[in-house]
């Protein structure tokens, strides 16, 4: 065995981070529940509480996509594990004839929460001190990926440099970018010398020979080393929660055709929509009445604004909103995106938009089955054709019911332009692949946080090089044909 593999440490950053998460966020809170119950209730209840808390924490963390991107929902999801663990221990105690006191269970849960907060702080510090060292098998993409990670606030991964593939035989430093490490033929030596944890590849569209050659070289050189390899599109999904169209091709959609692919139950989603929309309408009814009164008093015009949008299968429907613009503001005007300082918005409408109250009537669209609580935002029929022509896979959005909120809304804010809409498309495709009832619940929770303190016009956008494409028109025709057929 060669020298680099001998020097390689047994525990690399990827494995270390997984172990830290297991210890600090799953086992430590479970141990806190068990310790308190063992002292105040008994060993059997302590064991049940420990196992139930640890198992629940593990399952919840694995069932949600990109949980690190959901600030409030992530904390809430972790906090639920001790509650369910304490409840399981209390039920076991009652069935065993002991009857654990509620106060003891509450103390156990609060103790676990305190340990969890400390664990989250410890994990954040350790991840930043020992990030995953990433080398990109491309020149320009290394700098772009580093920028994306910094913008997203992800400190657990660090781009240390780039390795030139066979088609990039120019060993020179990129101005202002990560270091040039060497050539692909020397990848084994480079992995050991620079302590690389992860190699990231970005296959050139249409160049299958180069793709296979890269896999052959890395596979034959590094299989016995503690290094892993991912394609750029998969890394973007795992860390940044969207599909980079500029670095993806039709192969990405093979996952959606896999027999093991499970998009979630349509019945469960519809039940979630009805329950959530009904509850929200009941709670928001007084707010809607006050908003309607404010609109009427300001200019005497109609309260509701009706606009045609495209929904499931590209079918049109009438979307309802509380009117936030002056009467006839868009009469005779071509369809356009709104803006933060739109002069057509009334004084009352400005307040309604800031609190997203103008969107509440869409809950009626949800009850009618035209929309879902979570999904891609419906586009105007006048704007959609240009987006469908400009961006591949745009028609895949019509495989889903449009949503009152969505993954793109909580991650991107309001698009407000062609490239902003393309950025949201990248996130909509991610949702198409990873959707579930639990993810819908987490997105609704995150939307509540955004409404409380966010700005719908604040756009967090990836680099245009990862959004804009057009290098694979054949892929576009094939996928759009598939999308239309399924819709």
Task: Give the structure's gist in a few sentences.
With 487 residues, the chain is α/β, with parallel strands linked by helices. The protein has helices spanning 3-7, 13-40, 43-63, 71-95, 102-129, 140-151, 187-193, 208-222, 232-240, 254-257, 266-299, 347-354, 362-367, 384-390, 407-412, 418-434, 437-453, 464-467, 473-486; strands spanning 132-136, 157-164, 179-183, 198-201, 228-231, 304-310, 316-322, 372-374, 403-405. α4 packs across α17 and α11 packs antiparallel against α12.
What are the main properties of this structure?
487 residues; flat; alpha/beta; single chain; five-stranded parallel sheet; two-stranded antiparallel ribbon; 19 helices; disordered N terminus; disordered C terminus
Describe this structure in words.
The protein is an alpha/beta fold. It is built from 19 helices and nine strands. The protein has helices at 3-7, 13-40, 43-63, 71-95, 102-129, 140-151, 187-193, 208-222, 232-240, 254-257, 266-299, 347-354, 362-367, 384-390, 407-412, 418-434, 437-453, 464-467, 473-486; strands at residues 132-136, 157-164, 179-183, 198-201, 228-231, 304-310, 316-322, 372-374, 403-405. It has a five-stranded parallel β-sheet. Strand 1 (132-136), helix 6 (140-151) and strand 2 (157-164) form a beta-alpha-beta unit. The radius of gyration is 26 Å and the shape is flat. Residues 1-9 and 470-487 have low confidence and may be disordered.
Indicate the topology.
Blueprint lengths: L2 H5 L5 H28 L2 H21 L7 H25 L6 H28 L2 E5 L3 H12 L5 E8 L14 E5 L3 H7 L4 E4 L6 H15 L5 E4 H9 L13 H4 L8 H34 L4 E7 L5 E7 L24 H8 L7 H6 L4 E3 L9 H7 L12 E3 L1 H6 L5 H17 L2 H17 L10 H4 L5 H14 L1
Parallel strand pairs: 1-2, 1-4, 2-3, 4-5, 8-9
Antiparallel strand pairs: 6-7
Helix pairs in contact: 2-3, 2-4, 2-5, 3-4, 4-5, 4-17, 11-12
């Amino acid at each position: 065995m060669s020298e680099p593999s001998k020097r390689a440490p047994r525990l690399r950053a990827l494995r270390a981070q997984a172990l830290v998460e297991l210890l600090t966020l799953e086992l430590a809170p479970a141990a806190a529940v068990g310790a308190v119950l063992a002292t105040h209730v008994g060993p059997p209840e302590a064991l049940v509480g420990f196992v139930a808390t640890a198992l629940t924490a593990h399952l919840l963390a694995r069932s949600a996509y990109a949980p690190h991107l959901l600030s409030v929902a992530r904390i809430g999801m972790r906090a639920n594990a001790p509650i369910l663990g304490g409840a399981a221990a209390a039920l076991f105690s009652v069935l065993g004839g002991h009857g654990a006191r509620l106060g003891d269970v509450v103390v156990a849960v609060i103790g676990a929460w305190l340990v969890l907060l400390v664990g989250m702080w410890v994990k954040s510090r350790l991840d930043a001190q020992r990030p995953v060292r990433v080398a990109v098998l491309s020149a320009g993409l290394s700098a772009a990926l580093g920028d994306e990670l910094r913008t997203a606030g992800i400190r657990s991964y660090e781009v240390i440099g780039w390795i030139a593939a066979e088609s990039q035989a120019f060993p020179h430093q990129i101005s202002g970018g990560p270091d040039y490490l060497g050539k692909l033929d020397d990848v084994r030596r480079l992995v050991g010398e620079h302590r690389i944890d992860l190699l990231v590849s970005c296959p050139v569209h249409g160049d299958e020979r180069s793709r296979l050659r890269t896999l052959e070289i890395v596979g034959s050189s590094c299989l016995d080393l503690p290094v892993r390899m991912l394609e750029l599109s998969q890394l973007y999904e795992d860390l940044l929660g969207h599909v980079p169209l500029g670095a993806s091709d039709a192969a990405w959609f093979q996952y959606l055709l896999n027999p093991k692919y499970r998009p979630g139950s349509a019945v469960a989603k519809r039940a979630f929509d009805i329950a959530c929309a009904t509850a929200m309408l009941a709670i928001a009814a007084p707010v809607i009445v006050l908003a309607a009164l404010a609109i009427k008093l300001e200019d005497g015009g109609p309260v509701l604004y009706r606009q045609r949008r495209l929904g499931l299968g590209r079918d049109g429907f009438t979307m309802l909103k509380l009117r936030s613009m002056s009467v006839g503001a868009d009469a005779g005007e071509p369809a356009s995106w709104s803006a933060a300082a739109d002069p057509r918005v009334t004084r009352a409408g400005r307040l309604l938009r800031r609190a997203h109250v103008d969107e509440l009537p869409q809950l009626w669209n949800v009850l009618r089955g035209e929309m879902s609580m979570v999904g891609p935002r419906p586009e105007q029929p006048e704007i959609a054709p240009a987006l469908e022509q400009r961006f591949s896979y745009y028609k895949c959005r019509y495989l889903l019911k449009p949503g009152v909120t969505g993954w793109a809304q909580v991650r991107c804010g309001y698009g407000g332009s062609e490239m902003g809409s393309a950025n949201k498309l990248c996130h909509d495709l991610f949702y198409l692949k990873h959707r579930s009832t639990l993810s819908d619940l987490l997105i609704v929770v995150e939307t509540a946080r955004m409404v409380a303190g966010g700005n719908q016009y604040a756009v967090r956008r990836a680099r245009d090089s990862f959004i804009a494409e057009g290098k694979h028109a054949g892929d576009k025709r094939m996928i759009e044909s598939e999308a239309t057929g399924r819709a």
